[in-house]
Amino acid sequence: VLSNWKLPRAKTERSPSSVWLLDPPVQLAAKEKLVVTITGDSALPLRIRTTPFAAVDPLRSASKSVRDALLAEARTEQQRNLLADTWLLSTAVDRAAFDKGKQLAATARSFNDGRAWTMVTQATEPIPIRVLPRGNWQDESGAVVLPSSPSFLPGRVESTEGKRLTRLDLAKWIVSKENPITARAVMNRLWAQFFGTGLSAVVDDLGSQGEWPSHPELLDWVASEFRESGWDVKHMVRLFVTSATYRQSSSLRPELRDLDPTNRLLASQNPRRLEAEFVRDNALFIAGVLNTRDIGGPSVKPYQPEGYYDALQFPNRDYVNSTGAEQWRRGVYMHWQRTFLHPMLANFDAPARDECAAARVVSNTPQQALTLLNDPTFVEAARLFAGRLLAAKDASDDERIQRAFQVAYAREPKAKEVESLKKFLGEQREQFAVTPDDAAKLLKIGQSPPSAGDPTELAAWTSLSRVLLNSHEVITRY
């Protein structure tokens, strides 16, 4: 067994330690020896110990809890489980269970107890900052200046000889009452989230070079309400979504089409397509499998075309799809590979993230329809949606179509829609009855097993569900 362990060159205040677990565990017979050879250029004292006990967390091998469990006269259920796990990891008596336990332990360690990595900085003496004549950073003839807020913004604060401003002073100035810009900018972006367009349409430049707000008094009022509420975002969200303006119909009145074609006067709600992550989330929610329970943690990897990362090098990357409920987590947790954006995200205009994007481009392309029709995530969602509809054993086709519209569109179907879908459903039943292999292939897409029942019937309803999930109404917020 070869392992690398990098040690400090000088003795530190706290001695470094490491625990190594043999895979599989070694059972030494009589007179056998375990030989450890250590090489390196660090002249530091080492102490080596061995233990017959392994643990899910290597740093807790032979812990006090294990010793207490061994010595206990009447063991609790928790102690019995601890000893069983220790026995399995120390002996690998059941190789399959041993491998599964290692895998689960590695997954648990990757969550890092819910903590995220952060950058730690160390305070140092500030370097002199000078005015750069003509922007020449090599010219040190300019006057030395101290930190201050930009002179063209309100509530200016400046350093003095006795007090040099710090980042804390910057933070306080950003949210100070003398500086209304922060609250206005945040509320303008929040308004754009709920109404499609900000009170100032240029959400990334709320200044002299941007657009003058369509309702400046309203922007000032919501900004003041946001600040006076203690910067309570939930309060503002509740205020927006319960307002009469937000709850309007999205049908623009005919008499206003010429007067206000972009609906800047907010005579109706603005329909708009869902953002890329929400398109996927909505399909999984309709299918009944969207995982909203797991919050935080490492990124998840949805289905992706094989070989999509072949052009990536240094190092080469193998993309392995997430399994179980991880596959159905919200889009905000999707793995994001810079310059190689997931095809579904790229097709629905998600930004590449190599620069800040305050507003996303919204396009309408054939690739989007093909993604909704053929991406394994959406095909599996359609199959699971079909399983939900077929779960009502005694329901008729009309009742199931009605239920499908209620779940997917939040409305009742029209008579023409019912007749059209019933005709399509009949054609699919006939096709899959003649080609059962095609039905079997369709029902194997995705990780979830097919629902119980007639494969032909499930495949036919899956095709109908794919039509519904591929409609404009499912991916549009009205």
Strand order of the largest sheet: 1-2
N-C termini distance: 62 Å
Q: What kind of assembly state do the chains in view correspond to?
A: single chain
Structural class: mainly alpha
Computed CA radius of gyration, to the nearest angstrom? 31 Å
Count all strands and give the number.
4
Give the uncertain stretches in residue-range form. Answer: none
Q: How much of the residues is beta strand, in percent?
A: under 5%
Number of helices: 15
Explained architecture:
- With 478 residues, the protein is an all-alpha fold.
- It has a two-stranded antiparallel sheet with strand order 1-2. Strands 3-4 form a two-stranded antiparallel sheet.
- The mean pLDDT is 89.
- Helix 13 (415-434) crosses helix 14.
- It contains 15 helices and 4 strands.
- The chain starts with 63 loop residues before the first helix and ends with a strand.
Topology:
Elements: H1 64-71, H2 77-91, H3 95-110, E1 129-130, E2 144-145, H4 167-174, H5 181-195, H6 216-228, H7 233-241, E3 272-273, H8 276-287, H9 343-347, H10 366-374, H11 376-390, H12 397-408, H13 415-434, H14 436-443, H15 455-469, E4 476-477
Antiparallel strand pairs: 1-2, 3-4
Helix pairs in contact: 1-2, 5-6, 5-7, 8-11, 10-11, 11-15, 13-14, 13-15, 14-15
